[in-house]
Amino acid sequence: MKKIITAIGNKNLNQKLKQENTINVIGEDIQYREGILEVLKENEDIDFLILSELLSGQIEFKQLIDEIKKINNNIQIIIFLEKNNRELENYLYAKGICYIFYNNQISISEIIRLINDENKNSNQELKREVEKLKQILLEKEEINNFNNNKNKLIKKIQNKINQKNNLKEKYREEINKNTSNIICVSGTSGVGKSIFSINLAKSFMDYNNKILIIDFDILNNSLHTILGIKKYPEKIKNKIKNNNLLNEIKIEDLIIKINSKIDLISGINLLFDSKYQISSTKIKLILTKLKEKYEKIIIDTSSECFFDYTKEIFKNSNINIFITEANLTDIKKSKKLLNIYINEWQIPKNYFNILFNKYNNNSIDISILKNIFSEFSILGKLEFNPKYNLLINKNDKSTLEKNIKKEYLKINQNLLNQNKNLNSKISKNNFLKILPNIIKNKYN
């Protein structure tokens, strides 16, 4: 006959069990956890304990199980849990407790049958529970392995992100240190100077906080059209209507915000002394003032070579990106224009960085182009991309598409490397270390 005690807060179950001839119920239903320990200490030969997790008491449930096992390690425990708890189940299985049920999962008659059949089925049940425990432990190990691998992967990804951010920051520092603060974009008509200036500015967004584009192409200024904005800021429209107030316009009044990092000046003509004239002193003052506010200034210039102000921009900027297309007609025009810049305007050859735009399968081979322009630094080429028309027609102010951005970042890197090489040569010959100072010294 099995000796059992109940501790589930259910006197009805205790009474029904007492009616069974094959079961010897010791005492009344225990109402608190500590009472179980007291009964077990007085009756060391108890076979079964029917226990509810909801039983009140000061002692923690897991600690209660440990204390019960210390007193009577052979006792069979039938446990009712309040709700699904995998962690607690694993703990109970590890303690050799196989009979785990949730509330209302088993009837009183089934409990009686379980107790009566325990001797017959103990070996088979034990084997079954051992297998179940093995499976649980295996699942737990798999979960641990998954979590470990997941954490390793997260750590690896985080390291990659940190490395990328560090490289990005280092690259930004190098760009700010070694490339020009004022970049002049020149070239023949129709080669794509304007869209290049906008995309170049966008390519700097990851590495510079403030970028300014100035449209100095007075005859064919189109940057504001491409970006889908008005040429002049709203705040100076009244001054434009009243010609007497034009003298009050300052360079700050012409700044138009494109996005969080890029600004535009498209109405620079309002600062001209006359229709196509602006003094070299005024250009120098404008750029000096803007350099205090912007990390990068990109100037889109006119393809016409009879404007003196274009020469002044060359003198007051740090480097020039000269754009040409890779066809015979444009190469002829480019050579002629470069000849004027170098021989008549006395601009040093090392000031120009040649970029081949709208490159396609029908263009002149790049090796031939490098030979034709062997006297100059070659920045590289930009592939012809029909999406440029879409960018213009949509007035797109967003960041560059991935493939386009990749091309421009390569151009930036080439510009960075060429500036480093140029600075290194200058240093060896005991000249000034920084290109801007050399160019300024040439003209002052």
Task: Describe the protein.
With 444 residues, the chain is of the alpha/beta class. The chain has two domains: 2-116, Response regulator (Rossmann fold), CATH 3.40.50; 179-443, P-loop containing nucleotide triphosphate hydrolases (Rossmann fold). The protein is built from 16 helices and 13 strands. It has helices at 11-18, 33-42, 61-71, 86-94, 108-116, 118-178, 193-203, 223-227, 237-241, 280-291, 308-316, 328-344, 366-372, 387-393, 402-428, 435-443; strands at residues 2-7, 23-25, 48-52, 76-81, 99-102, 182-187, 211-215, 255-257, 262-265, 296-300, 319-325, 352-359, 377-383. The strands form two sheets. The chain has an eight-stranded mixed beta sheet, sandwiched between helices. Strands 2-1-3-4-5 form a five-stranded parallel beta sheet. The chain is rod-shaped and about 120 Å long. The termini are far apart. 30% of the residues are buried. The model is unreliable at 426-435 and 438-444 (pLDDT under 50).
